[in-house]
């Protein structure tokens, strides 16, 4: 191992994650995913010392523009690598060609506003990785000043066709993808087949796709795409030019973790054998995502933790746990003002932990704060504060199993005129959700110790269990559901049990709940009974 590889490994070891602990056996709660640092620093955005070694100063080398000077500096280094100090390139400059980092290098950027005109703007292709791009926060800018349209990334580390790379860091760089949705880069930073790496403390804006109904592809600011492991996305700020429309065919996502899938639903609709997750052990913490259609998302990911992130004003979902994800922890985040659902988990996810989040104001579309749809299992929803849902604050539907909903504070749900609930358990599947191969039903659901307060008036329920609605064409079992020790205030119904003609198995235990200002306490199949 050469000295530059040793130096890079030492620098990156501060951010390496250990593998989390697997939970064993059905019915047991997943042990909390354990992400540990080998050491700690006072600030995630404080860079360590620059390694000593061979250095080339980009401003002192020939080149038609600033990008050419940086490429000349890289080429002047030995294959073992070194430092390219580009801090002498200052002010407005341009790069007509791709900047290629093809050997282990630390690229230092200073107060530079670089108009990039190639796709990608920077390509990281050093064999094995060991590359760091380090800027000055708010001063080192890569800008699509010529307003070209590119489906490529601004910074691309794609090792899909080669051996896995490691120790790649992008820090304190400002990326401006464009000034209009039509004329912009469609990706900000993309990693593929990379491990023990980090994207942190960057400002990313203008990564766009045109709004409207014609699908031309999605825009993603930070994309960990296939075989990315043991890596971090930390303290980045991402913003989009405009929210667009709820019905947009082109999504604009802040942070996406995605593994390949056998089809668009990874076999959950077609019945095909799902592909295994290749993206794993990812920590996403302290990021802010504004506007767009989706704040953060996972597709077929194993073991990831989302903590202390803020996603506001996505026109669709602030966070989506889409297909066949497992061991995902969502803790201490702020999700606010979603156009549809603040946090949704779809299609065959397992071992999800959703705790201590502040989630409010879901307005259009589905209008829920938290929605578990289509085959989720082994889920803990605990200690969250939920407010302002246009429909249900929490809804579990279609083959939800082993789900615990406890100690949440729910206020001001269902601002619309229709009857909705603080917590809704819907057996389904119904036509809307019937595509999932797992079928309908609910089993082993625990709803206890929640504070549900709705003073909006209207025909609303604290907790609803629905066996079958008007769209269902089959009977679905509802078994081992426990509802108790909840405090419900200001609703029409306290606990509303609605079999809806469902002839499937029905086992719902409603224990003691505290009801305050509730017109009707416990109602089963429209037969009003005494509050209890």
Q: Could you walk me through the main structural features you see in this protein, from its secondary elements to its overall organization?
A:
This protein has 532 residues and is mostly beta strands. Helix content is 5%, strand content 45%. The chain is built from 3 helices and 48 strands. The chain has a 17-stranded parallel β-sheet that branches. A hairpin with a 2-residue loop joins strand 47 and strand 48. The relative contact order is 0.07.
Briefly note the structural class of the backbone: mainly beta
Count of beta strands:
48
Overall geometric form = elongated
Strand count, sense and barrel status of the largest sheet are: 17 strands, parallel
Give the topology, please.
Elements: H1 3-12, E1 55-57, H2 66-76, E2 82-86, E3 91-95, E4 99-101, E5 105-109, E6 112-116, E7 122-124, E8 129-134, E9 140-143, E10 150-158, E11 165-171, E12 174-176, E13 185-192, E14 194-195, E15 198-200, E16 203-205, E17 219-225, E18 228-234, E19 237-239, E20 252-258, E21 279-285, E22 288-290, E23 294-299, E24 301-307, E25 310-312, E26 317-321, E27 326-331, E28 334-338, E29 341-346, E30 350-355, E31 358-362, E32 370-373, E33 377-382, E34 385-389, E35 394-397, E36 400-406, E37 409-411, E38 421-426, H3 430-433, E39 442-448, E40 451-453, E41 461-466, E42 478-484, E43 487-489, E44 493-498, E45 506-510, E46 514-516, E47 520-524, E48 527-529
Parallel strand pairs: 1-2, 2-5, 3-6, 4-7, 5-8, 6-9, 7-10, 8-11, 9-12, 10-13, 11-14, 11-15, 12-16, 13-17, 14-18, 15-18, 16-19, 17-20, 18-21, 19-22, 20-23, 21-24, 22-25, 23-26, 24-27, 25-28, 26-29, 27-30, 28-31, 29-32, 30-33, 31-34, 32-35, 33-36, 34-37, 35-38, 36-39, 37-40, 38-41, 39-42, ...
Antiparallel strand pairs: 47-48
């Amino acid at each position: 191992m050469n000295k530059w590889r040793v130096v890079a490994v030492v620098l990156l070891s501060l951010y390496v994650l250990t593998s989390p602990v697997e939970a064993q056996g059905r019915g047991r709660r997943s042990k909390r995913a354990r992400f540990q640092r080998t050491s700690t620093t006072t600030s995630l955005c404080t860079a360590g010392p620059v390694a000593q070694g061979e250095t080339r100063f980009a401003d002192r080398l020939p080149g038609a523009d600033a990008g050419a000077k940086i490429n000349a500096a890289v080429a002047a280094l030995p294959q073992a690598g070194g430092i390219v100090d580009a801090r002498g390139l200052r002010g407005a400059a341009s790069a007509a060609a791709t900047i290629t980092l093809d050997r282990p290098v630390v690229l230092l950027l200073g107060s530079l506003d670089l108009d990039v005109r190639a796709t990608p703007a920077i390509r990281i292709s050093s064999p094995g990785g060991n590359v760091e791009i380090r800027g000055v926060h708010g001063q080192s800018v890569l800008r699509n000043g010529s307003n070209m349209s590119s489906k490529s990334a601004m910074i691309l580390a794609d090792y899909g066709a080669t051996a896995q790379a490691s120790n790649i860091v992008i820090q304190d760089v400002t990326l401006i993808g464009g000034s209009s949705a039509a004329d912009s880069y469609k990706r900000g930073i993309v990693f593929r087949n990379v491990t023990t790496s980090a994207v942190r403390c960057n400002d990313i804006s203008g990564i766009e796709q045109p709004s409207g109904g014609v699908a031309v592809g999605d825009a993603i600011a930070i994309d960990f795409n296939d075989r990315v492991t043991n890596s971090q996305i930390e303290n980045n700020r991402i913003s989009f030019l405009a929210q667009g429309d709820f019905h947009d065919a082109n999504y604009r996502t802040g942070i996406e973790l995605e593994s390949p899938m056998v089809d668009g639903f990874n076999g959950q609709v077609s019945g095909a054998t799902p592909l295994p997750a290749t993206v794993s052990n990812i920590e996403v913490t302290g990021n802010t995502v504004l506007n767009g259609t989706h704040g953060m998302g996972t597709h077929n990911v194993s073991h990831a933790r989302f903590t202390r992130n803020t996603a506001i004003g996505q026109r669709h979902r602030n966070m989506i746990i889409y297909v066949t994800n497992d061991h995902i922890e969502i803790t201490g985040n702020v999700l606010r003002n979603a156009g549809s659902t603040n946090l949704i988990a779809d299609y065959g996810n397992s071992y999800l932990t959703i705790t201590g989040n502040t989630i409010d104001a879901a307005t259009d579309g589905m209008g829920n704060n938290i929605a578990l749809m289509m085959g989720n299992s082994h889920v803990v929803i605990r200690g969250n504060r939920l407010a302002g849902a246009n429909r249900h604050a929490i809804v579990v539907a279609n083959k939800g199993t082993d789900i615990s909903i406890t100690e949440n504070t729910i206020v001001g749900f269902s601002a619309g005129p229709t009857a909705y609930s603080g917590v809704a358990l819907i057996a389904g599947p119904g036509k809307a959700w019937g595509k999932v191969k797992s079928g309908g039903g609910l089993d082993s659901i625990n709803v206890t110790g929640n504070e549900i307060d709705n003073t909006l008036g209207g025909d609303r329920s604290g907790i609803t269990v629905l066996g079958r609605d008007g769209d269902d064409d089959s009977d679905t079992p509802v078994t081992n559901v426990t509802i108790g020790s909840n405090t419900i205030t200001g609703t029409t119904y306290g606990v509303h049990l609605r079999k809806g003609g469902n002839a499937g198995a029905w086992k719902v235990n409603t224990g003691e709940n505290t009801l305050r200002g509730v017109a009707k306490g416990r109602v089963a199949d429209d037969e009003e009974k005494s509050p209890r």
